Amino acid sequence: MTSMFDSYQMAGLRLPNRIVMAPMSRIRSNPEGLATPSTATYYAQRATAGLIVSEGVQPSKQGQSNPSSPGLHDDAQVEAWKPVTAAVHANGGRIFAQIMHGGRVAHPDTAGAHPVAPSAVALGAEVFTPSGLQPAPEPRALTTAEVPAEARSYADAARRAVAAGFDGVELHGANGYLIQQFLSSNANLRTDRYGGTTANRIRFAVEAVEATADAIGPDRVGIRLSPGGQVWNVVEEDVLTLYTALFEALAPLGLAYVHVLETADEDVLIALRKAWPTTFILNPGGQIAPTPGTKERGEHWLAQGADLISYGRPFLANPDLVERFRTNLPLAEAPKETWYQGGDRGYIDYPSYAHPAR
């Protein structure tokens, strides 16, 4: 029986275990979107994960969703990431950069530009800005001629990620951000080649992935998806049909992996597992669920055919999560107020498990 602690070969990378650190926004970059020395410490502390996927990194100022989030759209940002990737590699780890375009989940006070999206449909929620929560404005609908440039922005960021020392990239196609906005039926009201039919709704995701694979090689590219997930008020119709079509379009590219959140019924996810030819990563925590994913749930999904299991929140307060799982040690919890507050508290001050003195 497959164990979380078995090694795994993924697109030229040997992973020492099957536990992935999932991407999590930490909102601790400087105002220029630069990673900091604390960023390097944070990821290096967690390098025993089989694979680390970084927090969401904006591919352009237009794509920035959160204040104090890092970027990969200028040379200074590339240089700032180099000590981070070097620290992870020095500690024996592997790290992919998650490329995240916020689309309509954004605000002009954060990005310095009006949000763009598939259609001019307001989010109907508040978003984070430098001055606190504010209502998300109605986004500007991209013209048909503009859409390919937004798809290429993922590829541009991927080139910079490789230059910064990342082992690969993951396109953020989940959680209501730009790629999922194109997939959805309520955020995407287009009648051109990017909307309406299933084939048109998946087109933006496919073009973004194709451009990225062409830029850095498909074996360095993954995509994260949340089939049927409703974060940031997205709605998807006929989830299995939609994602089966997407998988069929992406499968010939030979990507490193797909990274799927447990946001649909188990039979849907098992069908998608069977439809995907390369590495399948499953996150058992869903979308910021009331409780984080557990070791037991991860083992269940390994038995169902997942290759790797990703965890988010358990890694916050447990930099040694792999060892804690291996030896059944108790897990520490990270108070929610420290998830995004900035500074080193609740970021790099969690110790590895201290065994009681005998």
Write up this protein.
- With 358 residues, this protein is α/β, with parallel strands linked by helices.
- The protein has helices spanning 37-45, 75-90, 108-111, 147-163, 178-183, 198-201, 203-216, 239-250, 266-275, 295-303, 313-316, 321-327; strands at 8-10, 13-15, 19-21, 51-57, 95-99, 116-117, 126-129, 132-135, 140-141, 168-172, 221-225, 257-261, 279-283, 308-311.
- The chain has an 8-stranded parallel β-barrel, surrounded by 4 helices.
- Strand 4 (51-57), helix 2 and strand 5 (95-99) form a beta-alpha-beta unit.
- Helix 1 runs parallel beside helix 2 and helix 4 runs parallel beside helix 7 (203-216).
- The chain starts with 7 loop residues before the first strand and ends in a 31-residue tail after the last helix.
